[in-house]
């Protein structure tokens, strides 16, 4: 049972010592190339310190990342369902491999190009959760299916199913397909019940397609504040999908996949009858958006997973009372809200509204804690779009850089 810590106290505790460690005043500013060379040549016995990295850069705490993955898997095992993590969050094959190695049944991708990249890097169980509606994209998906037996495509209209069937025939493949069900938000998916059943029967009847089940993702449920409210919303919104799955079973249709859920509902989703796996994304990194929703044990802070992803930034200007300016603004952090959180600190806020500069404001005007050249870390506002701003992330253990991972799916938004 976690103590009822305040959000600030939790954030401070979660990142204990991060700001009080020795921060080198002589700034090396190692580039990605230098770090990669150092790791491969083992020049530095003790390794490069993260505080010596050039900034702004993206840093992942490997201990926290591993604990987040282990926590997810332990919960899945206890609840008798699986995880099929969404790679739209990390876009990083090295992390997808870690998730698969620890028990995930596959990964999800949001875009066909993301799926291609993951497959190029050896990932071969891929559920594409977004429909493809244009001929070139459908052809690309079928070309991928031609190489990747574990590729599954979602559909949500009969026209799209027919287009997919034709493209599958043209490519000489039989494509695995899930029907995307709308949980009520009308963003994607077909209406559960009779329309969905009809579409599933059509998919089942079309040549070149194999029906594998359904997916139903309620994005709106994920960030509902308060565990009880989130739980009732998530379970209620998936009732119609669960009923549709039963109807499909009764009709003799294949429902081996019933995928849904995310980081906010990962410990709720097993309450939806028949759900096979959760498409969790953000849990690997966490972010400021998720920290605020509260959890089952801790009403104030969602502390099931640890903030593992930070942007490392350097102070550029500290000569004005009550504030400091850093080199990590919107282009390093996005302008998503809530704003990034300075790791390990209280009594200050951070905004990343201007393109090139981050802005620190001290609550107490008299204090002036950062000096020019100091480095600090901020917990990212929303992990997915921040990851998409960087070519690589540095994996650190303690303060030492242990890995440099290409974000191979970065910019693959087609
Ligand atoms: C279809 C789908 N599944 C799963 C997820 C993962 O959600 P989360 O990052 O909240 O775990 C998303 C995120 O937007 C999504 O769009």
Task: Provide a descriptive summary of the structure in words.
By secondary structure, the chain is α/β, with parallel strands linked by helices. It folds into two domains: 160 residues, D-serine dehydratase-like domain (Lyase, Ornithine Decarboxylase, Chain A, domain 1, Beta Barrel), CATH 2.40.37; 220 residues, TIM Barrel (Alpha-Beta Barrel), CATH 3.20.20.10. 32% of the residues lie in helices and 20% in strands. The chain contains 14 helices and 17 strands. Strands 1, 10, 11, 12, 13, 14, 15, 16 and 17 form a nine-stranded mixed β-sheet that branches. Strand 10 and strand 11 form a beta hairpin. Helix 5 packs parallel to helix 6. The longest helix is centred in the N-terminal third of the chain and has 18 residues. The protein is globular and about 70 Å long. The chain binds pyridoxal-5'-phosphate.
């Amino acid at each position: 049972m976690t103590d009822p810590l305040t959000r600030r106290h939790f954030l401070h505790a979660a990142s204990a010592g991060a700001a009080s460690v020795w921060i080198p005043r002589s700034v090396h500013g190692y580039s990605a190339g230098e770090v990669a060379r150092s790791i491969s040549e083992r020049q530095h016995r003790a390794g490069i310190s993260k505080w010596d990295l050039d900034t702004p850069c993206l840093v992942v705490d490997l201990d926290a990342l591993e604990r987040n993955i282990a926590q997810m898997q332990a919960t899945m095992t206890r609840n008798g369902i699986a995880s099929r993590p969404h790679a739209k969050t990390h876009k990083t094959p090295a992390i997808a491999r870690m998730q698969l190695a620890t028990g995930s049944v596959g990964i999800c991708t949001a875009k066909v190009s993301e799926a291609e990249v993951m497959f190029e890097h050896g990932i071969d169980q891929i559920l594409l959760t977004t429909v493809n509606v244009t001929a070139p994209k459908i052809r690309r998906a079928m070309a991928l299916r031609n190489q990747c037996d574990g590729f599954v495509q979602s559909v949500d209209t009969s026209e799209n199913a027919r287009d997919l069937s034709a493209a599958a025939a043209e490519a000489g493949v039989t494509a695995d397909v899930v029907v995307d069900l709308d949980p009520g938000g009308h963003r994607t998916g077909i209406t559960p019940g009779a329309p969905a059943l009809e579409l599933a029967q059509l998919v089942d009847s079309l040549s070149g397609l194999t029906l594998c089940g359904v997916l139903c993702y309620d994005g709106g449920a994920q960030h509902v504040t308060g565990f009880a409210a989130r739980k009732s919303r998530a379970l209620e919104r998936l009732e119609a999908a669960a009923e549709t799955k039963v109807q499909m079973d009764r009709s003799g249709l294949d429902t081996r996949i019933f995928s849904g859920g995310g980081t906010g509902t990962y410990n709720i989703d097993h309450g939806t009858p028949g759900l096979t796996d959760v498409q969790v994304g953000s849990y690997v990194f966490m972010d400021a958006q998720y920290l605020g929703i509260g959890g089952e044990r801790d009403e104030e802070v969602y502390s099931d997973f640890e903030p593992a992803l930070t942007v490392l930034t350097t102070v550029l200007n500290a000569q004005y009372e009550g504030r400091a300016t850093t080199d990590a603004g919107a282009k390093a952090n996005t302008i998503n809200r809530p704003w990034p959180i300075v790791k390990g600190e209280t009594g200050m806020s951070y905004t990343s509204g201007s393109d090139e500069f981050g802005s620190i404001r001290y609550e107490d005007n008299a204090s002036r804690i950062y000096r020019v050249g100091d480095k600090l870390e901020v917990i990212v506002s929303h992990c997915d779009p921040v990851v998409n701003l960087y070519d690589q992330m540095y994996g650190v253990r303690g303060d030492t850089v242990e890995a440099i991972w290409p974000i191979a799916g970065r910019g693959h938004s087609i």
